Amino acid sequence: MRTLVHLSDLHFGRVDEELLGPLHDLVHRIAPHVVVVSGDLTQRAKSEQFEQAKAWLDTLPGPQIIVPGNHDISLYNVFRRFLLPLDRYKRYITDDLEPVYFDDEIAVMGVNTARSLTIKDGSVNKEQVAAIRSRLCDLDRHITRIVVTHHPFDLPAHADKDALVDRAPMAMKAFSECGVDLLLSGHMHASHSGSTAERYDMSEYAALVVQAGTATSTRGRGEVNSFNVVRVEHDKVEVDRYGWDMLGKVFSVMSTEKFMRSGNVWAAHTDGLYAAGL
Fold first, then answer.
1. What is the C-alpha separation between 59 and 146, in angstroms, rounded?
2. CA nearest to 234, candidates 141, 150, 172, 144
């Protein structure tokens, strides 16, 4: 089994400082095999915000798979937005926009969906899909394939479908051919886990989508600060959602969802969702 801590939408520049210490300590206690950060490390892509994000991330365990989000591209500086869109991200965080982690149980690949031509939307292109095929398609079947993006490939039922990453059907076709199991994302500041079966009608294939809320931002959009702990086995995934307890000043498990794989189809386990403490 492999354990991933899935953080997203940190938004340094609009961070609730009270959360940083407890989150740091809890991540170390969980002792994940991989820490995943699915974008929006900063609020406005400023140098000092990237410096703060980098300093805090360096206190967490590794390896780390980090991808940028739309907030990591300058919004108001037109020159920097269009000519140097991720220059500061690459300078302070990592110059690898599509990082990978492989071991004998999991393969985790980050894909950059942030684009300078849109304010908040994201996209994948043909070159990125080709890279996914090259890196993931030929792996042994027992290795669980995980793709990390900022923008989601699936959404809760109530969400605006415009938030989906552009060219999602093209990428989903590659995912089905490569047997991609798990799609981790953020962007919405809302937690969600589920199968892609309802949105994408693909013969004998459905991936598992896990979306994280905002771990540390003050912009909660009606949901408490939260993050995911994803426990991966070959045919089973458990997703623990940790939320911030404002009275206890700790992150605690709020819910757990269980998913099983049959062939290339992931679906919720019949007893898979229960609220913590019930």
1. 24
2. 144
Provide φ and ψ at 15, rounded to 5°.
-95, 140
Locus of tokens 């229960």: 274
Residue of 89, 5, 4 whose CA lies nearest to 40: 89
Count the Cβ atoms, other than its own, within 10 Å of residue 218.
14
> Tens digit of pLDDT for each residue in 13-35?
999 999 999 999 999 999 999 99
Q: Indicate the pTM of the whole model.
A: 0.92
Tabulate helix, strand, coil % of the chain (nearest 5).
Answer: 25, 30, 45
d(CA 256, CA 56) in angstroms, rounded, equals 27
Cα separation, 264 vs 251, in Å, equals: 34
DSSP-derived 3-state class of residue 63: coil
Residue 50: its H or E element? helix 47-57
